[in-house]
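1st attempt posting a full record on here, be nice pls
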Amino acid sequence: MSDDSFIREVNEEMRQDQARAIWDRYGPMLIGVAVLVVLLTGAWVGYDYWTKSRANASGDRFSQALKLANEGKNDEAITALSALEKDGHGAYPLLARMRAATVLADKGDFDGAVKAFDAVAADGSIPGAIRDMARLRAALLLVDHGSQADVAARVELLTADTNPLRHSAREALALSAWKEGKPADALPLFDQISADAGAPRNVRERATLMSDLIRGSGDAS
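the predicted structure (as tokens):
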């Protein structure tokens, strides 16, 4: 046997001894970690399936409630939505809450609808964007069923240049002012919408029409 062969055999024997030593020391720990990873992965997959199943079931219930509302069965729809708000999962309790307020308005209970939207807007656990939408929805109802002050109390903060709902908020304020016989208050708001390149086309067109109407009536001053 050559010296090189002998050295290779010695090195191989040393590597095997080192591997056995490492396994004897850390093997049980590595097995435990592997088992833990498998168990955690299984638990996560199971939990994910469970939560998705519950959310899917809530989605089916929400769709059924919408069907009832679309069929004009408002009382049944509200009952279904109220139940979903209490025991639904995922985003559906909040969706049910917003939709129930809309159904109240559809059945002519405007006071109840405004109260429901106001409750969403006042709920600090709800994301700010949804709360702002609830304020706007309440204000739009109050354009026809409240005062300019009622509308302003809900959407005046939404008229800031950086707010994505500013166009609709300004329109609600302008319409409420115009309906109260205050065209001079309404005109600047309509002009502001018309001049805002970020406003949706249909909103800008309505604002321009209202501005022309107010100026044409001679009530702008």
